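Weekly structure sync - notes
Attendees: PM, LS, DV (DV joined late)
Agenda: review two folding runs queued last week.

Item 1: First target. Sequence and C-alpha coordinates pasted below for the record.
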Amino acid sequence: MREHKNFWDRNAGLYDCFMRKDRAVYEKMYELIRPVVKDKTVLEVATGTGLIAKHIVKAVAHIEATDASPEMITEAKRGNYSAKLRFSVQDMFSLPYASKSFDVVIVSNALHIVPQPEKSLREIKRVLKDDGVLIAPTFTHAENSFPGKVKAFFMNLAGFPLHSKWTSEEYLKFLQQNDWTVRKSVVLKASFPLTYTECVKSEV
Protein backbone atom coordinates (compact mmCIF):
# COMPACT_ATOMS: atom_id res chain seq x y z
CA MET A 1 0.00 0.00 0.00
CA ARG A 2 3.02 2.31 0.30
CA GLU A 3 2.94 3.52 -3.33
CA HIS A 4 -0.73 4.45 -2.97
CA LYS A 5 -0.14 6.20 0.33
CA ASN A 6 2.57 8.26 -1.34
CA PHE A 7 0.24 9.31 -4.16
CA TRP A 8 -2.58 10.25 -1.78
CA ASP A 9 -0.24 11.91 0.72
CA ARG A 10 1.18 14.05 -2.10
CA ASN A 11 -2.25 15.05 -3.38
CA ALA A 12 -4.24 15.36 -0.14
CA GLY A 13 -4.28 19.16 -0.27
CA LEU A 14 -5.67 19.13 -3.83
CA TYR A 15 -8.29 16.42 -3.34
CA ASP A 16 -11.26 18.62 -2.43
CA CYS A 17 -10.59 20.91 -5.42
CA PHE A 18 -10.43 17.87 -7.68
CA MET A 19 -13.76 16.56 -6.34
CA ARG A 20 -15.55 19.92 -6.59
CA LYS A 21 -16.50 19.41 -10.24
CA ASP A 22 -18.64 16.41 -9.20
CA ARG A 23 -20.33 18.23 -6.32
CA ALA A 24 -23.86 17.82 -7.74
CA VAL A 25 -23.41 14.06 -8.12
CA TYR A 26 -22.04 13.76 -4.60
CA GLU A 27 -25.08 15.67 -3.26
CA LYS A 28 -27.28 13.01 -4.88
CA MET A 29 -25.14 10.32 -3.30
CA TYR A 30 -25.46 11.88 0.17
CA GLU A 31 -29.25 11.86 -0.29
CA LEU A 32 -29.11 8.13 -1.08
CA ILE A 33 -26.84 7.37 1.88
CA ARG A 34 -28.53 9.36 4.67
CA PRO A 35 -31.67 7.16 5.06
CA VAL A 36 -29.49 4.01 5.18
CA VAL A 37 -27.23 5.33 7.95
CA LYS A 38 -29.93 7.05 10.03
CA ASP A 39 -29.24 6.40 13.73
CA LYS A 40 -26.69 3.69 12.78
CA THR A 41 -23.12 2.96 13.81
CA VAL A 42 -21.07 3.50 10.66
CA LEU A 43 -17.54 2.80 9.44
CA GLU A 44 -16.12 4.52 6.38
CA VAL A 45 -12.90 3.14 4.93
CA ALA A 46 -10.84 5.16 2.43
CA THR A 47 -12.57 8.34 3.62
CA GLY A 48 -10.02 10.62 1.93
CA THR A 49 -10.62 14.14 3.24
CA GLY A 50 -13.87 13.05 4.89
CA LEU A 51 -16.31 14.56 2.38
CA ILE A 52 -18.93 11.84 2.75
CA ALA A 53 -18.53 11.45 6.51
CA LYS A 54 -18.97 15.18 7.11
CA HIS A 55 -22.07 15.35 4.92
CA ILE A 56 -23.87 12.43 6.58
CA VAL A 57 -22.74 12.83 10.20
CA LYS A 58 -25.98 14.51 11.32
CA ALA A 59 -27.93 11.38 10.36
CA VAL A 60 -25.74 8.75 12.07
CA ALA A 61 -25.44 7.63 15.68
CA HIS A 62 -21.63 7.46 15.33
CA ILE A 63 -19.15 7.22 12.46
CA GLU A 64 -15.56 6.03 12.36
CA ALA A 65 -13.90 7.43 9.22
CA THR A 66 -10.54 5.95 8.27
CA ASP A 67 -7.91 6.23 5.56
CA ALA A 68 -4.45 4.76 4.98
CA SER A 69 -3.03 8.21 4.17
CA PRO A 70 -1.96 10.31 7.19
CA GLU A 71 -2.07 13.46 5.06
CA MET A 72 -5.65 12.76 3.99
CA ILE A 73 -6.68 12.31 7.62
CA THR A 74 -4.91 15.57 8.54
CA GLU A 75 -7.01 17.33 5.88
CA ALA A 76 -10.16 15.50 7.05
CA LYS A 77 -9.73 16.68 10.63
CA ARG A 78 -9.81 20.33 9.55
CA GLY A 79 -13.22 21.77 10.34
CA ASN A 80 -14.61 18.62 11.99
CA TYR A 81 -16.71 19.81 14.90
CA SER A 82 -18.93 16.78 15.45
CA ALA A 83 -18.41 14.54 18.46
CA LYS A 84 -20.16 11.77 16.50
CA LEU A 85 -17.36 11.64 13.90
CA ARG A 86 -13.87 10.28 14.58
CA PHE A 87 -11.09 10.24 11.98
CA SER A 88 -8.10 7.88 12.17
CA VAL A 89 -5.37 6.36 10.02
CA GLN A 90 -6.16 2.68 9.37
CA ASP A 91 -5.35 -0.04 6.85
CA MET A 92 -8.53 -1.15 5.05
CA PHE A 93 -7.04 -4.65 4.71
CA SER A 94 -6.49 -5.03 8.46
CA LEU A 95 -8.97 -3.05 10.53
CA PRO A 96 -8.60 -2.76 14.32
CA TYR A 97 -12.30 -3.29 15.05
CA ALA A 98 -14.02 -6.33 16.53
CA SER A 99 -16.06 -8.58 14.25
CA LYS A 100 -19.67 -7.51 13.64
CA SER A 101 -19.10 -4.01 15.06
CA PHE A 102 -20.91 -1.83 12.52
CA ASP A 103 -24.44 -1.48 11.13
CA VAL A 104 -23.15 0.11 7.91
CA VAL A 105 -19.77 0.18 6.17
CA ILE A 106 -19.05 2.69 3.41
CA VAL A 107 -16.23 2.27 0.89
CA SER A 108 -16.53 4.95 -1.77
CA ASN A 109 -14.40 5.15 -4.91
CA ALA A 110 -11.71 2.94 -3.45
CA LEU A 111 -12.19 -0.64 -4.64
CA HIS A 112 -10.96 0.22 -8.15
CA ILE A 113 -7.70 1.76 -6.90
CA VAL A 114 -6.41 -1.05 -4.67
CA PRO A 115 -4.60 -4.14 -6.00
CA GLN A 116 -6.68 -6.70 -4.06
CA PRO A 117 -10.22 -5.32 -3.64
CA GLU A 118 -11.58 -8.75 -2.70
CA LYS A 119 -9.27 -8.75 0.34
CA SER A 120 -10.73 -5.45 1.50
CA LEU A 121 -14.26 -6.81 1.00
CA ARG A 122 -13.45 -9.78 3.25
CA GLU A 123 -12.29 -7.44 6.00
CA ILE A 124 -15.39 -5.26 5.56
CA LYS A 125 -17.57 -8.35 5.82
CA ARG A 126 -15.82 -9.30 9.08
CA VAL A 127 -16.56 -5.98 10.83
CA LEU A 128 -20.10 -5.63 9.43
CA LYS A 129 -23.05 -7.03 11.37
CA ASP A 130 -24.85 -9.97 9.75
CA ASP A 131 -27.86 -7.78 8.96
CA GLY A 132 -25.66 -4.80 8.07
CA VAL A 133 -25.36 -2.87 4.81
CA LEU A 134 -22.32 -2.21 2.64
CA ILE A 135 -22.49 1.03 0.65
CA ALA A 136 -19.90 0.88 -2.13
CA PRO A 137 -20.15 3.63 -4.78
CA THR A 138 -17.37 3.18 -7.35
CA PHE A 139 -16.29 4.88 -10.55
CA THR A 140 -16.84 2.35 -13.34
CA HIS A 141 -14.18 3.56 -15.77
CA ALA A 142 -14.76 0.95 -18.46
CA GLU A 143 -17.95 2.79 -19.47
CA ASN A 144 -16.06 6.02 -20.19
CA SER A 145 -16.79 8.10 -23.23
CA PHE A 146 -13.77 9.01 -25.37
CA PRO A 147 -13.14 12.21 -23.32
CA GLY A 148 -13.32 10.07 -20.17
CA LYS A 149 -10.73 7.68 -21.57
CA VAL A 150 -8.43 10.61 -22.38
CA LYS A 151 -8.87 11.93 -18.83
CA ALA A 152 -8.10 8.49 -17.39
CA PHE A 153 -4.96 8.29 -19.56
CA PHE A 154 -3.59 11.54 -18.14
CA MET A 155 -4.54 10.55 -14.59
CA ASN A 156 -2.54 7.38 -15.14
CA LEU A 157 0.45 9.43 -16.32
CA ALA A 158 0.18 11.49 -13.13
CA GLY A 159 0.50 8.30 -11.09
CA PHE A 160 -3.17 7.78 -10.20
CA PRO A 161 -3.38 4.13 -9.02
CA LEU A 162 -6.16 2.60 -11.12
CA HIS A 163 -6.14 -1.20 -10.76
CA SER A 164 -9.64 -2.23 -11.90
CA LYS A 165 -11.60 -0.88 -14.87
CA TRP A 166 -15.12 -2.23 -14.56
CA THR A 167 -18.34 -1.50 -16.38
CA SER A 168 -21.27 -1.12 -14.01
CA GLU A 169 -22.38 -4.66 -14.88
CA GLU A 170 -18.89 -6.08 -14.29
CA TYR A 171 -18.63 -4.27 -10.96
CA LEU A 172 -21.94 -5.67 -9.71
CA LYS A 173 -20.83 -9.14 -10.83
CA PHE A 174 -17.55 -8.68 -8.94
CA LEU A 175 -19.49 -7.90 -5.75
CA GLN A 176 -21.74 -10.94 -6.24
CA GLN A 177 -18.72 -13.19 -6.81
CA ASN A 178 -17.39 -12.03 -3.44
CA ASP A 179 -20.56 -13.10 -1.61
CA TRP A 180 -22.49 -9.84 -1.59
CA THR A 181 -26.11 -9.47 -2.64
CA VAL A 182 -26.73 -6.16 -4.39
CA ARG A 183 -30.03 -4.76 -3.14
CA LYS A 184 -29.80 -1.42 -4.95
CA SER A 185 -27.67 0.05 -7.73
CA VAL A 186 -27.87 3.38 -9.53
CA VAL A 187 -25.48 4.73 -12.17
CA LEU A 188 -24.86 8.45 -11.58
CA LYS A 189 -23.33 10.68 -14.25
CA ALA A 190 -20.09 12.22 -12.98
CA SER A 191 -16.69 12.93 -14.56
CA PHE A 192 -16.61 9.16 -14.79
CA PRO A 193 -19.74 6.96 -14.51
CA LEU A 194 -20.35 6.36 -10.79
CA THR A 195 -22.12 3.13 -9.85
CA TYR A 196 -23.79 3.60 -6.44
CA THR A 197 -24.46 0.28 -4.75
CA GLU A 198 -25.98 -1.00 -1.51
CA CYS A 199 -25.21 -4.64 -0.61
CA VAL A 200 -25.98 -7.14 2.11
CA LYS A 201 -24.12 -10.32 2.98
CA SER A 202 -25.10 -13.22 0.75
CA GLU A 203 -26.56 -16.34 2.32
CA VAL A 204 -23.81 -18.98 2.28
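Item 2: Second target, run right after the first with the same settings.
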Amino acid sequence: MYRLPAFAESDPEQLSALIAQAPLGLLITSGPAGVMANPIPFLIEERAGGHVLRAHLARANPQLAELAAAPQVLVVFQAGNSYVTPSWYPTKAETGKVVPTWNYAMVQVRGQALLDTSTDFLRDQLDALTDQQEGVRAEPWAVSDAPESFVAAQMRGIVGLEILVETMEGKLKLSQNRPAQDRAGVRAGMMAEGDPLARLMPDPGP
Protein backbone atom coordinates (compact mmCIF):
# COMPACT_ATOMS: atom_id res chain seq x y z
CA MET A 1 0.00 0.00 0.00
CA TYR A 2 1.37 3.40 -0.98
CA ARG A 3 1.85 5.46 2.20
CA LEU A 4 3.42 8.83 2.75
CA PRO A 5 5.23 8.85 6.11
CA ALA A 6 2.71 11.37 7.50
CA PHE A 7 -0.14 8.91 6.90
CA ALA A 8 1.57 5.64 7.90
CA GLU A 9 0.35 3.80 11.01
CA SER A 10 2.22 0.72 12.22
CA ASP A 11 1.21 0.41 15.88
CA PRO A 12 -0.43 -3.06 16.23
CA GLU A 13 -2.62 -1.87 19.11
CA GLN A 14 -4.00 1.03 17.08
CA LEU A 15 -4.48 -1.14 14.00
CA SER A 16 -6.25 -3.84 16.02
CA ALA A 17 -8.57 -1.21 17.49
CA LEU A 18 -9.45 0.03 14.00
CA ILE A 19 -10.25 -3.51 12.87
CA ALA A 20 -12.45 -4.03 15.94
CA GLN A 21 -14.31 -0.80 15.12
CA ALA A 22 -14.80 -1.77 11.46
CA PRO A 23 -14.75 -5.59 11.42
CA LEU A 24 -16.24 -6.11 7.97
CA GLY A 25 -13.11 -6.83 5.95
CA LEU A 26 -12.69 -7.52 2.25
CA LEU A 27 -11.12 -10.98 1.97
CA ILE A 28 -9.01 -11.14 -1.20
CA THR A 29 -7.56 -14.34 -2.64
CA SER A 30 -5.59 -15.13 -5.78
CA GLY A 31 -6.06 -18.81 -6.52
CA PRO A 32 -6.76 -21.02 -9.54
CA ALA A 33 -9.93 -19.08 -10.42
CA GLY A 34 -8.10 -15.75 -10.34
CA VAL A 35 -8.55 -12.81 -7.99
CA MET A 36 -11.63 -13.11 -5.80
CA ALA A 37 -12.98 -10.79 -3.06
CA ASN A 38 -15.76 -11.17 -0.49
CA PRO A 39 -16.86 -8.98 2.44
CA ILE A 40 -16.55 -11.02 5.66
CA PRO A 41 -16.90 -9.94 9.34
CA PHE A 42 -13.74 -10.72 11.31
CA LEU A 43 -12.52 -10.92 14.88
CA ILE A 44 -8.91 -10.09 15.72
CA GLU A 45 -7.05 -11.79 18.56
CA GLU A 46 -3.56 -11.36 19.98
CA ARG A 47 -1.85 -14.62 20.84
CA ALA A 48 1.62 -15.59 21.98
CA GLY A 49 2.74 -16.05 18.37
CA GLY A 50 1.16 -12.84 17.07
CA HIS A 51 -2.21 -11.67 15.80
CA VAL A 52 -4.89 -13.90 14.29
CA LEU A 53 -8.01 -13.00 12.31
CA ARG A 54 -11.01 -15.31 12.76
CA ALA A 55 -14.12 -15.60 10.61
CA HIS A 56 -16.42 -18.07 8.88
CA LEU A 57 -17.69 -18.52 5.33
CA ALA A 58 -20.69 -20.29 3.85
CA ARG A 59 -19.85 -23.77 2.59
CA ALA A 60 -21.30 -22.77 -0.77
CA ASN A 61 -18.84 -19.88 -1.11
CA PRO A 62 -16.42 -20.70 -3.99
CA GLN A 63 -13.70 -18.74 -2.23
CA LEU A 64 -13.21 -21.73 0.10
CA ALA A 65 -11.64 -23.69 -2.77
CA GLU A 66 -9.37 -20.73 -3.51
CA LEU A 67 -8.27 -20.58 0.14
CA ALA A 68 -7.48 -24.29 0.16
CA ALA A 69 -5.42 -24.02 -3.04
CA ALA A 70 -3.70 -20.68 -2.32
CA PRO A 71 -3.81 -19.80 1.39
CA GLN A 72 -1.88 -16.51 1.15
CA VAL A 73 -4.52 -13.78 1.53
CA LEU A 74 -5.02 -10.05 1.83
CA VAL A 75 -7.78 -8.57 4.01
CA VAL A 76 -8.66 -4.88 3.72
CA PHE A 77 -10.52 -3.03 6.48
CA GLN A 78 -11.86 0.48 5.88
CA ALA A 79 -12.61 2.29 9.12
CA GLY A 80 -14.07 5.35 7.40
CA ASN A 81 -13.72 7.65 4.43
CA SER A 82 -14.85 11.15 3.56
CA TYR A 83 -14.61 13.67 0.75
CA VAL A 84 -12.76 16.82 1.83
CA THR A 85 -13.98 20.04 0.26
CA PRO A 86 -11.52 22.94 -0.17
CA SER A 87 -14.17 25.13 1.43
CA TRP A 88 -13.13 23.76 4.82
CA TYR A 89 -9.61 25.18 4.44
CA PRO A 90 -8.95 28.71 5.73
CA THR A 91 -6.07 28.64 3.23
CA LYS A 92 -8.68 28.85 0.47
CA ALA A 93 -9.54 32.42 1.47
CA GLU A 94 -5.88 33.34 1.84
CA THR A 95 -4.31 32.00 -1.36
CA GLY A 96 -6.90 29.98 -3.27
CA LYS A 97 -4.21 27.33 -3.77
CA VAL A 98 -6.24 24.34 -2.62
CA VAL A 99 -7.84 21.28 -4.21
CA PRO A 100 -10.34 18.66 -3.04
CA THR A 101 -9.09 15.39 -1.58
CA TRP A 102 -10.31 12.31 0.26
CA ASN A 103 -9.57 11.34 3.85
CA TYR A 104 -9.78 7.76 5.06
CA ALA A 105 -8.60 5.19 7.60
CA MET A 106 -7.57 1.78 6.28
CA VAL A 107 -5.82 -1.36 7.52
CA GLN A 108 -4.38 -4.05 5.27
CA VAL A 109 -3.55 -7.48 6.66
CA ARG A 110 -1.62 -10.23 4.89
CA GLY A 111 -1.28 -13.77 6.16
CA GLN A 112 -1.83 -17.49 5.80
CA ALA A 113 -5.37 -18.87 5.88
CA LEU A 114 -6.32 -22.05 7.74
CA LEU A 115 -9.75 -23.68 7.40
CA ASP A 116 -11.45 -25.33 10.37
CA THR A 117 -14.69 -27.34 10.31
CA SER A 118 -14.66 -28.46 13.95
CA THR A 119 -17.80 -27.85 15.98
CA ASP A 120 -15.79 -26.32 18.83
CA PHE A 121 -14.17 -23.73 16.58
CA LEU A 122 -17.40 -22.81 14.83
CA ARG A 123 -19.44 -22.42 18.02
CA ASP A 124 -16.73 -20.36 19.68
CA GLN A 125 -16.46 -18.20 16.57
CA LEU A 126 -20.22 -17.58 16.42
CA ASP A 127 -20.41 -16.79 20.13
CA ALA A 128 -17.44 -14.41 20.04
CA LEU A 129 -18.57 -12.55 16.92
CA THR A 130 -22.12 -12.22 18.29
CA ASP A 131 -20.85 -11.00 21.67
CA GLN A 132 -18.67 -8.39 19.97
CA GLN A 133 -21.65 -6.86 18.20
CA GLU A 134 -24.41 -7.50 20.75
CA GLY A 135 -22.48 -6.72 23.94
CA VAL A 136 -23.17 -2.98 23.77
CA ARG A 137 -26.94 -3.40 23.36
CA ALA A 138 -29.38 -2.92 26.22
CA GLU A 139 -30.88 -6.37 25.57
CA PRO A 140 -28.13 -8.34 23.80
CA TRP A 141 -29.05 -11.38 21.75
CA ALA A 142 -26.95 -14.53 22.23
CA VAL A 143 -26.51 -17.58 20.02
CA SER A 144 -27.88 -19.65 22.90
CA ASP A 145 -31.20 -17.79 22.53
CA ALA A 146 -31.86 -19.84 19.38
CA PRO A 147 -32.87 -23.53 19.56
CA GLU A 148 -29.79 -25.75 19.80
CA SER A 149 -30.94 -27.94 16.90
CA PHE A 150 -31.31 -24.82 14.73
CA VAL A 151 -27.82 -23.58 15.65
CA ALA A 152 -26.35 -27.01 14.89
CA ALA A 153 -28.01 -27.01 11.46
CA GLN A 154 -26.69 -23.53 10.73
CA MET A 155 -23.15 -24.57 11.68
CA ARG A 156 -23.26 -27.42 9.18
CA GLY A 157 -23.53 -24.76 6.48
CA ILE A 158 -20.35 -22.84 7.37
CA VAL A 159 -16.58 -23.34 7.49
CA GLY A 160 -14.30 -21.64 9.98
CA LEU A 161 -11.33 -19.50 8.95
CA GLU A 162 -8.22 -18.37 10.78
CA ILE A 163 -5.62 -16.09 9.23
CA LEU A 164 -2.19 -16.06 10.84
CA VAL A 165 -1.17 -12.44 10.43
CA GLU A 166 2.21 -11.90 8.80
CA THR A 167 2.00 -8.15 8.14
CA MET A 168 -0.44 -5.49 9.27
CA GLU A 169 -0.15 -1.92 8.04
CA GLY A 170 -2.42 1.08 8.28
CA LYS A 171 -2.94 4.32 6.44
CA LEU A 172 -4.66 7.15 8.29
CA LYS A 173 -5.04 9.98 5.80
CA LEU A 174 -6.48 12.67 8.06
CA SER A 175 -5.13 15.94 6.61
CA GLN A 176 -1.81 15.59 8.50
CA ASN A 177 -0.04 17.21 5.54
CA ARG A 178 -2.11 20.40 5.84
CA PRO A 179 -1.37 23.45 8.05
CA ALA A 180 -2.90 23.38 11.55
CA GLN A 181 -5.66 25.82 10.60
CA ASP A 182 -6.71 23.64 7.68
CA ARG A 183 -6.70 20.50 9.84
CA ALA A 184 -8.96 22.30 12.30
CA GLY A 185 -11.24 23.37 9.47
CA VAL A 186 -11.54 19.82 8.14
CA ARG A 187 -12.28 18.39 11.59
CA ALA A 188 -14.91 21.05 12.25
CA GLY A 189 -16.50 20.46 8.84
CA MET A 190 -16.66 16.71 9.38
CA MET A 191 -18.10 17.11 12.86
CA ALA A 192 -20.77 19.51 11.57
CA GLU A 193 -21.82 16.85 9.06
CA GLY A 194 -21.78 14.10 11.67
CA ASP A 195 -18.95 12.25 9.93
CA PRO A 196 -17.55 9.57 12.31
CA LEU A 197 -14.12 9.88 10.67
CA ALA A 198 -13.71 13.15 12.62
CA ARG A 199 -13.25 11.14 15.82
CA LEU A 200 -9.90 9.89 14.51
CA MET A 201 -8.60 13.42 13.92
CA PRO A 202 -6.84 14.91 16.95
CA ASP A 203 -8.35 18.08 18.38
CA PRO A 204 -6.02 20.90 17.24
CA GLY A 205 -6.97 22.94 20.32
CA PRO A 206 -7.46 26.71 20.54
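Discussion on item 2: The mean pLDDT is 94.
Action: LS to circulate a short write-up before next sync.
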